[in-house]
Each structure stands twice: as structure tokens, then as C-alpha cells.
Amino acid sequence: MQKRTTSRDVARLAGVSQATVSYVFTGKDTISAPTRDRVLRAAAELNYQPNLAARSMRTSRTGRLAVVMTVSSLNPRELLLGATEAASEAGYVIEVVYLPGGPDERAARLAQLVSSSQYEGILSFSPIPVSPASADAEPGATVVLSLSEFDDDMHVTGEFTDARPIAEMMERLVQLGHRRFVHITGALDFPSAISRRDEYLAAVERLGVESLGVIEGDWSAETGYRIAQALPDTAPPFALIAANDLVATGAMRAAIQRGWHIPSDMSVTGWDDAGQSAYLVPSLTTVVQDRQTLGANAARRLIAAVRREPVPAPATGLQHIVWRESTAAPSS
Amino acid sequence: MQKRTTSRDVARLAGVSQATVSYVFTGKDTISAPTRDRVLRAAAELNYQPNLAARSMRTSRTGRLAVVMTVSSLNPRELLLGATEAASEAGYVIEVVYLPGGPDERAARLAQLVSSSQYEGILSFSPIPVSPASADAEPGATVVLSLSEFDDDMHVTGEFTDARPIAEMMERLVQLGHRRFVHITGALDFPSAISRRDEYLAAVERLGVESLGVIEGDWSAETGYRIAQALPDTAPPFALIAANDLVATGAMRAAIQRGWHIPSDMSVTGWDDAGQSAYLVPSLTTVVQDRQTLGANAARRLIAAVRREPVPAPATGLQHIVWRESTAAPSS
DNA sequence: CTGAAAGCGCTTACAG
DNA sequence: CTGAAAGCGCTTACAG
């Protein structure tokens, strides 16, 4: 193993002290431009990369953030990409930590993670049993942020809980002639499921339409399927507002098997634009989210909290509706 | 920020030297059981966690592995969970690194990652422009392992390239009466796409059936759709072996639009068991892979290479076929 | 089996 | 604006 270049090597080549090299790399602006240049050139020539472990030991900051994942969390690819990129820009790295087991085990493991001081911040894409990120926590403590969270009053907050597209879709369906609606929820320990349900209920009220039911699901295609199987024969024509595309897909299969025509007997909307949704027969109307930006914003909010800077509000408007064949005027 | 407990604190409480604490935690077996017990108890009482940065600085081992991801890689959730768990058992953490841009930019960024000495090993779930992990590289150098890789002779290798289920599905389809087959490939810079295509071609030969074509795709539903649209009207009855479920879903939509009945005019198989596949109408026959084990094995192979231990062979047999409605006897 | 000591590579007051 | 020096918390020969 060839010896790594250190700041001392760079200092020697540039003809300055080790401290000067350090000042250049930590962005101190007290170094003259010519000196800075010499240092940077020497560093480039030697392919110098500061040893993060040494820096971390000295500053007692790890520069590490954790993303905790459970088996049940949704496809994290774009979220992770966005978060990683934003973290990298701010000088942080993101580690994946798997939280196996049930709620109790996960909570214990998370608490241990927090107390380990290994991470400056911890990000979760799904609900976790902690209070939301607060900048007033003791300085130096690990900050925890969930993208899908309840605040102190059990209101929903976070970038995943902007459910306005639900209302927009229902308005359009009403314009198309729909008067009867059904909602299948996601798992109700998810704030995003709560906010979509609440948005549905508010829209029913506001639009003066009939709700045939709000039925609790768990995000899975299986519940969509079973719930649609159990709807009364008298349900059609109606519009089904499903919590996500999986639920919608399951419900569509059940509807087709019952001989209901989609979209005229049952119009249906999803959420997420799952991979196959555009190619279903009929193709599924859904909500597309910019998940990479969502992930990046979440990382930025976490980092702001870690740095005790003001935490920006969750981004909104990162989602838009894609109208496809599963929604149209009801049969009369 | 309350001061962190150090090995010195533990040593003091346990009435031993700091070195003894270190020996206990690094697994030296030269410490007597009673002493080890005292140390462990003291550590537990103080909630001591070794400072990884300090350890890393001393050992010049970072204990960090990177998983590189590009926008185009598949859903990494289970792979990541498996890899993370296996890494954690071996004392490593896994960081996500985003490789944006085109092939050249990605290659440059990867080279930089390798030369940064920040990671002991780098894992990729998709093809990357490097030679496979080799234990004869210079000691201390960063090891790179791709789950989907070409070996020196451009043969395919790695846990993603076991394509035997293709042959098994085709045998069954032949038993059902099928004599005409079509294959739509994945992106052919993926070894897994190559191996599935080769398995298809070998099975055509061996089973003595007719191949209406091997058509190059790119894993997307869109290519499946367009390619199926372009098949001759005389194609049915036939069986379509699609490179994955997305391709299969796109092809199914095109077939339905052409008035072909699935499965009698066109039987179809996918690969991956995508989220909606079981609820399509008809539901899609596919190959389920144990992706968490796949990810865990990959991490173990990488770690073995990092440690210059013999690298175990890629696991096989982690996949099985799920027969659903999209496959049946052809119309005669 | 244990203790005193050096040193990994950095950052950061401090004195010039 | 720069240099000499201390120290972050560990590990690991080395001497006992």
C-alpha cells in the first residue's frame, strides 16, 4: 500500500506550512490568492485528498448522514439519488441503515443509532417513532427527520403529505359527470395516507358529491383487489380514488373480473406513477412526483437542522396529475 | 455537547489500561474472561461506542463501502437492504454514491472514487466500466465489484446472470403446445440481458422450436409496446419471452390493442415480478428473485475481495418461476 | 496478561 | 498572512 499523500506533503511541495494547507482546504479566506494557488496546484499534482477520518476526529463532526430503511418502505431509488446529490454538495455522505423487525425493534435500533454519535443526521422516508427534527435540541445531538411525519399536534407535514392533487382529480371527475366516489386509503400510520384521505373527505364535502365509503387499506395491490371485490353490485357508476397505483391496479383487476367496464362503470385514479401504470389496459390516471427533488429537499432540510440553521419549509408543487384512460365520464 | 465516552473512561471505570479496553473491543483473545467481563460491563454502563474515525485513522482502514447508483439502475431497495445487513455484520457501512451523467462522466467519477481511498470497496448493481474484483490487485487498493459483469473473455458472470429460468419456462410452454417463440431483450450492455438472450437461443435450438425473432429492447415498457406493435399479423399463436416485466407489460398492452388474446394468441413471460404484475389482466408469469439475498451475497463477495480472502462464487438458484394467467396452451 | 507511549493526519488557537 | 505545537481517540508494538 503506497503511502497516502498528506497535507504535510502538500505543504512541503508548496513551500508553506501544514496549517496553510489546512486553511486553504477548510475555506478560510485569510490566505492570499497566490499562496492559495500554489497550495491548490501542489495538491492537484500530488492528487491530495484530505483524510476525512482525521478531520472528523479533530472537528468531532462526522459528516455522515444515515438514511434508515425498513422492508416496507417504497422504492427509494430517486429519493436516494436526490438526497445523495444534495448531501454531497454540502459535504456530507449518506449511509444506508437497515432497520429490520417490528416497530419496537426498529425504535430500539433507531434510538441506538441516535445515541451512537456516528451520524450528524438521520433521514427516514417512512414514518418512524421520533419527534420531528427540531433545531432547539441540544447542540451536537443527532437530528432525525422523517419525510413523512406528524407534527406535535398530529397534523401531517413533510414533503410527502401534499395531497392537493386528490382534490384536483376529483374536481375534474365531477366535471366529467361523476357524482359517486369511493376512497381506499393507504396504511393509516403513514401521514401521507392520512392527508390523502382528509383531502378526499374535504373534496366530497366541498363538491357536494356522494361518498360510497372510505375504506382502509395498506398500500398493497391485494387490499385494492379485495376491497373492490367487496363493493356492492350497486356501486357503479362511480370513481375510485386509490391511495396509490398498487391499490388502483388491484382494484382494476377485481372490477374487470366483476364485469365492470373501466372507466365508464368505474373510473379510477392512483398515485405514484408506478412502473407499469402507463401500460395497463386501461392505462392508469395518476400523480407523478419529482422524487429526486423530493429527496434532495429532504436532505437539505436535514442538513439545515444539523447545522442549526433555519429549516426551509417542505417543498410543494412537485407533483402533477397525468390523465390516462382509466378516467372518463360515467355511464349514465 | 456532552463529552463522548472514550476508551480511557471505560478503562478507568473498569480499573484497567486503555490498551486492555482496546484489545477487548478488537477481539484479541489474550484477555482473561473476568477482565473482559469487567470491561464490557463498564462499557455498557457508560454506553461506550468506539470512535470509528479514530480507529480508522489508526488502522488506515475506513470500514466504508460504496454502492454506486445511476439513474437507470433498477429498484435497489431489497438489494440495498441485503447488502447493508451483510456489510453491517462484517463491520462495514455502506454509502450511496450517485454517478450522474453519461458513460464517460460516470467512468471519470468512478475512477476518482477509486483513487480517493475513501472506500475499501465499491459495489455496483449495474454494469460499470471497470475490470471485475480481483484479489491480486495491489494490497490496500479499492476493490470494485459489479453485480452484473463481464469477465475477461466477455462472458457473463455475477449473481444477476443466472438465466436458467428462461429455459425452464420455454420447456413448459413447449409442453403446453407452443412451437413459436419471440424474445425481446434487455439493454445489451447488461450482462444479464446477454445471458437471458443466450439462454433463449440455446433453448430454441435444443427444443427444436421456431424463433420468430430476437428483438433488441432496453428493459422499458415502451420498447415492449412498440416491438409488439410491429410484430407481423401472422405471428400468433406464439409465446413471447420478455427480458423483464416492464417489457412484458408494454407488449401485453400492444397485443390487447391488436385484438390478440392473451394467453391463447400470445403467451407471455417476464422477469422480476414487478409490483403490479400479479394484478394485471391477465396476471403475468414471471421470475421472482430473492433480491435481498442477492444483495447480501454481493456485499459478502466484495468484503472477501477487500480482505484478500478467497471470493465465493456468485450464488445461484435464488430465483423461481411463478406461473400466472399469461401463459397457457396456444390457440390451434 | 497488563501498562506506558508513540503516532495515524488533521484543525485551530496562539505567537509572531 | 504564516509557522510551531497540541491534541482529537484510537491501536499496537514493546517492555514488563
Automatic annotation (TrEMBL), chains A, B:
<dbReference type="InterPro" id="IPR010982">
    <property type="entry name" value="Lambda_DNA-bd_dom_sf"/>
</dbReference>
<keyword id="KW-0805">Transcription regulation</keyword>
<dbReference type="GO" id="GO:0000976">
    <property type="term" value="F:transcription cis-regulatory region binding"/>
</dbReference>
<dbReference type="InterPro" id="IPR046335">
    <property type="entry name" value="LacI/GalR-like_sensor"/>
</dbReference>
<feature type="domain" description="HTH lacI-type">
    <location>
        <begin position="5"/>
        <end position="59"/>
    </location>
</feature>
<protein>
    <submittedName>
        <fullName>Lactose operon repressor</fullName>
    </submittedName>
</protein>
<keyword id="KW-0804">Transcription</keyword>
<keyword id="KW-0238">DNA-binding</keyword>
<dbReference type="GO" id="GO:0003700">
    <property type="term" value="F:DNA-binding transcription factor activity"/>
</dbReference>
<dbReference type="InterPro" id="IPR000843">
    <property type="entry name" value="HTH_LacI"/>
</dbReference>
<dbReference type="InterPro" id="IPR028082">
    <property type="entry name" value="Peripla_BP_I"/>
</dbReference>
<dbReference type="Pfam" id="PF13377">
    <property type="entry name" value="Peripla_BP_3"/>
</dbReference>
<dbReference type="Pfam" id="PF00356">
    <property type="entry name" value="LacI"/>
</dbReference>
